[in-house]
Please model this.
Amino acid sequence: MILIKDVYVNGKRQDILIEGNKIKKIGEVKKDEVEDVEIIDGKKKIAIPGLINTHTHIPMTLFRGVADDLPLMEWLNNYIWPMEAKLNEKIVYWGTLLGCIEMIKSGTTTFNDMYFYLEGIAKAVDESGMRAVLAYGMIDLFDEERREKELKNAEKYIKYINELNNSRIIPALGPHAPYTCSKELLMKVNELAKKYNVMIHIHMNETLDEIKTVKEKTGMEPFVYLNSFGFFDNVNVIAAHCVHLTDEEIRIIKEKNINISHNPISNLKLASGISPIPKLLKEGINVTLGTDGCGSNNNLNLFEEIKITAILHKGVTLDPTVIKAETAFNFATKNGAKALNIKAGEIKEGYLADIVLINMDKPFLYPKENIMSHLVYAFNGFVDDVIIDGKIVMREGKILAVDEEKVYEKAEEMYEILRS
Ligand code: NI
Model:
């Protein structure tokens, strides 16, 4: 059992009792109510639900800074894809550990990933103590042979992750995007998602160029095209980016209950555009936040995404009320949990114990009155303690489960291999 004493949570000072991987009680907990308990003094701290990053490619931490200030296609074709060709399970493992350390330190407890060499990713996630939804990224480039290979891999990884039997690691399907995946592949993905009861994670409408490609090929916008063959029917989908959308596409997103992963920093950095989030909110669509990979962000600090989301759309719409602080914060917590179908994202009795503590003794968190405002507009993202699935994974800024120094050393070593 873990008892967080006298912490500021859900608007007041109280105790949080954790038993197993769940929050057992919030309120006053007397010492004689508990046995075998580890006590965390919460007096100077606030507790928030762990943040949920709904779109990323974690091993790309190793691509941080290798190619900035380029258009998406040039960035992918000339830099990212050639480096990705050199990857292997070992490189991916160390890149993922580096990403897990970064996420834990910045208050993220769950991430939704699409990448390759999932054995390496799953191993690192397991060791770090994080929670993750992992999908193998499928790209067939309309080639039948490649399609069969990709589908086989995807199915193999669902089985592999299921067999790990670790409740923190959840399998998913990751067809890359409508401009890199054939209709046949996408139709099969819908079938597999239903067969294995897993969600689908896909890039949608990231750039005008790619939308043009799909339109020229099919005569339809990407969401209309995918909807025309039932891709969204009876499955849970997270669509990343969704920068450029027609009204018809927004209608489909609403009707099919598609979750949006808003990635404002990646979209700004690659000059892809700005997603019409206020419009989606008006329709009651579930908006979540993602960082995307470190090649295009260049970090995994979801607090930056929260702040940018809260201010960006004010500037675009010239309306300061359009996304309030708490709304942006909910994107990264409650809404993310809803999209990934996990009982987290809120600090509530019976919910998963994914809890982040922040020491309030930081100059930018004074005066202490308006905490939600500070979290969204003032905080730098460096948190103090992190509990995931009822286990302490970071205590007073120190990562417990993995050797940080060794990960940094290995990250440099792996980077040398990638750029050689
Ligand atoms: Ni992406």
Remarks:
- The first helix runs from residue 72 to 84.
